[in-house]
Design brief:
single chain; 44 residues
Length: 44
């Protein structure tokens, strides 16, 4: 992933930065939701 991100940033920071940020937030959101479901499942 680091290599892909480096290439993307090298080509066009201003245009692609928002897309990278949105993709990163989406991945983190999915991970957090899955983690929360696991915690809730353990508690209940």
């Amino acid at each position: 992933m680091a290599d892909i991100e480096s290439i993307v940033f090298d080509q066009n920071e201003e245009e692609l930065a928002p897309a990278v940020v949105v993709a990163t937030i989406a991945l983190l959101a999915v991970f957090l939701v899955g983690f929360l479901f696991q915690v809730v499942g353990m508690v209940t």
